[in-house]
Amino acid sequence: MHWAIIVIILLVVIVFIALTIKIVPQQRVGVVERLGKYHRLLTPGLNILIPIIDQVRVYHDLRIQQANVPPQTVITKDNVQVQIDTIIFYQVIGPEQATYGISDYVYGVRNITTATMRQIIGKLELDETLSGREKISTEIRIALDEATEKWGVRIERVEVIDIKPPLDIQEAMDKQMKAERNKRAIVLEAEAAKQDMILRAEGDKQSKILKAEGDKEARIREAEGLRQAQELEALGEAKAIQAIAEAEKNRIELLRAAGLDENVLAYRSFEALTEIAKGPANKVFIPANTVETLGSIGAIGELFKAAKAEP
């Protein structure tokens, strides 16, 4: 009997301590009610309650949470049924409002998302719906912000995960995409062929231009070489003529230095003709107008002989 009383007292103490001391983890809060009325919030750490009088109504996680909205079948403006999967990221910022403002804020967020999505998609055609995920997400988030502000919940982000049109439309879209890809491939192939032809023509053009430039440069160099050769040849001939003239000039000066003038040279030429005419087969014809000249030359010869006879 004694041990039974001790055990009962220990149990009462343990229950009293359990009802009095509450340890709350980080990023969590508890809503405390005193005699059924909101009293305060339990903050992270050690908290003391009055047993039986104070009770914890609910705990809220203050971290960002996510809620998956079940796939919804909605109708677009052009009467096409599409199935949309959505996920919502939210955070409790007012634990008191989240407790007493709505019975289940997650369920309310899902319902508002579904209703807003139907309104938005009903204003869009299929092509706009498939390409307007960002627009749909933004409009849903704006609508949720207006509703959840009173619930102590903040919508962080709304993501449209997938948009699935009917199977027949998917097949038609696949065929269209395949046709577009084939078209792009044909266009790219034609463009590549065009570029190849352009590059080939450009290369041929550049080749002809370079060849013409080379021929032109070769002709210019050939003409320049011919001109230089002619100049050198003319210069050589001029130098040769100059050398001959110089030699003749020197010869004449030497003859004059030896006392031989033009009359003596003429007489010497006449003597050479005489020697030539002595041969039996040689005949020398002298023009008539040269007789006077020859007479003068004979006189010159006499004078030349007299000059030699003098001592």
Summarize the helices and strands and which ones pair or pack.
Elements: H1 2-20, E1 21-24, E2 28-34, E3 37-42, E4 45-48, E5 54-61, E6 65-75, E7 81-92, H2 95-100, H3 105-121, H4 126-131, H5 133-148, E8 153-164, H6 167-257, H7 262-277, H8 291-309
Antiparallel strand pairs: 1-4, 2-3, 2-5, 6-7, 7-8
Helix pairs in contact: 3-5, 7-8
Describe the protein's architecture and organization.
The mean pLDDT is 78. A hairpin with a 2-residue loop joins strand 2 and strand 3. The radius of gyration is 65 Å and the shape is elongated. 61% of the residues lie in helices and 21% in strands. The chain is of the alpha+beta class and 311 residues long. The chain has helices at 2-20, 95-100, 105-121, 126-131, 133-148, 167-257, 262-277, 291-309; strands spanning 21-24, 28-34, 37-42, 45-48, 54-61, 65-75, 81-92, 153-164.
